[in-house]
Amino acid sequence: MTTAVLTVDQVAERLGISRWKVHDLIRSRELPSFKIGRCRRISEAALDAYVSLRTEQEAA
């Protein structure tokens, strides 16, 4: 099973936020990511986990 990886721009588009906010989430370790060379990537699984966690926090 392979997990798709997304660019910062793709994550920003999916969440409807700026690239800079995605970088803030990465810097604060709220959104796990990794680098391939100089390129930052986020797995779809990490994005799904982040969205689920935020949804649970807002519901509480």
Automatic annotation (TrEMBL):
SUPFAM superfamilies per UniProt: Putative DNA-binding domain (SSF46955)
GO terms for MF: DNA binding
Species whose genome carries this gene: Streptomyces spinoverrucosus
Name of the featured protein: Helix-turn-helix domain-containing protein
Domain Helix-turn-helix intervals: 5-51
InterPro entries (alphabetical): DNA-bd_dom_put_sf, HTH_17, SinI_DNA-bd
Pfam families: HTH_17
